[in-house]
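Section handout 9: paired folding examples.
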Amino acid sequence: MEKRKGEEIAAFVGIDWADKQHEVRMQAAGSGKKETLTLKQEPEAVANWVQGLRERFGGRRIAVALEQRKGALIHALMGYETLVLYPVNPKTVAKLREAFYPSGGKSDPVDADLLLDIVTNHRDKVRAWVPDKARTRLLQMLVEARRNFVDERTRLTNKLRSALKEYFPQVLEWIEELGSQEVTDFLNKWPTLESVQRAKAETVRKFFAEHGHRNVGRVEERVKAIGAAKELTKDEAIVTAGKMKAQALARQLRPLLESIAGYDGQIAELFEKHPDREVFSSFPCAKEVLAPRLLAAFGEDRSRYDQALDIQNLSGIAPVTKTSGQSRVVQKRLACPKFLRQTFHEYAGQSIKKAGWARTCYNLLRARGVKHHAALRAVAYKWIRIMYRCWQDQEPYSEEKYSQALVRTGSPLASAIRLAAAG
């Protein structure tokens, strides 16, 4: 990245990002003089600044270090061919600040100086950022945003469950999926046991039929259960407060569910048209949610990672080994993009539900005393290696082919798989 089309880096820039304005340090190649300026977070200001650099350095490449991988500033800069962006982990800057300025004070000029030093003297320690194509970046943004809304849904449903337990716990038995449109419709129509018991049996049957319940026997069981149910409490204060809280939470839940459904539709449409769809939909148990997330995790630029270990380390799936003297400790990697680690961790959890090497590997680790989440990370570690090869070769995953490879290399896992199949 330091040379593209034979052009060398003409200048180095360190930018400390802020919400309204950014501190900038710049140094022309071959010069010992640092230049300082303040750049407003305005599209016109950024465009004028880049245009000035382009004219000054004749369109040659300019290396820019900043503490962002996403956000307003990097979104503004990524569209300029002149700039080579080097996103730096904020923890790296914090550690350098702590080492060189032990007083503990944080100031923007100091951080801009540190970023300039990194991009000028330690460019071999950071990787230039090449954005994926728009379709992949959009998919990456959508799957992460969707997950945030799902987490919000979980928060609301947990509060709703708690509220119902206090005055109307039967709803938790009658409606299996609490975070669904069905529960919001039910509570809007019948917020208390008394209200649903006043309803006609046929009205209740129609409600469940309209919400996808086709098992007539199960519906009849619920109708009978509603008729025979007893109130948890008849205290008017508890029932009234509980009803208002439950309905308020249900009203918050309804638009959230609609938003998630909207994200699902957009993600499915993007994923269906993506050239890597066949690769990532081939992994067992990936399905409509995790397959797009796995694709987003790898991206589209196959030159971004030199080996699978790069992704294993970046995602935090690979453990950290710390040695000191005679001691050696292997522990979970904490500094990593949390959503990326979550994606691989959750996929590993889904993959062990299906018979195959992943479940056998997980069972072996658990039998050795490895804890659940550590075992899932170990399975995810292996999956990343497999996915990386499929991604690089643009070849769908084959369980049979991988099992044959385990046998061919004499992996102990191959014997365990045979025993599991025989047993």
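Moving on to protein 2 of 2.
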Amino acid sequence: MPLPSIEIETAPNPRHAVIWLHGLGADGHDFEPIVPELVDRAWPALRFVFPNAPVRPITINGGMQMRAWYDISGLEIAQKQDEAGIRDSIRLLGELIEHEIARGVPAGNILLAGFSQGGAIVLGGGLRYPARLGGIIALSTYLPLAEKTDAEANPANRGVPIFMAHGMLDPTIAHALGEMSRDYLAQRGYPVDWHAYRMAHQVCAEEIADLKRWIGARLR
């Protein structure tokens, strides 16, 4: 069974889905409130799937147990990455995608979205997924295991459209790290739509409006 999730369907019998992964210490309810702001009534029926990450101890938080996609051992998040945890969450993401396909949503109609840690997993998992996806939305995040991406990325998603957004004042995941990930992907030919905003580690109204336009273009 895939991870327990909060689900919102914008109309009956959706043939499109958005799988949205929350950040460290949050849960599947975190991005539930943005659905009404994000969705255009003219769009086809969509199923939003907001999974709950497993609970695990987080080293940087003194070993406190919380929902997380992987462990973080220090402030330099791109160093000493929890490769085992990242790979396990990429596997869990794959199960969520397979569940949507089994429910009648083609892989090409699935958008992966994530914030912070969740964004890292959808980037890492989406590029490795063996069937072409509809797109990847990576908010306030970075590409994990970047040095292994060339060898492991699946050709099926070589041209997958990617929306990346980051706060220029982000104290949690540096704006520069987001830019490095963007450049890494762009240099390899991935079509990255990059947006930067004067905000910290959060989401803003302007970002939601930009994302709404981007999703609308994917659904046309």
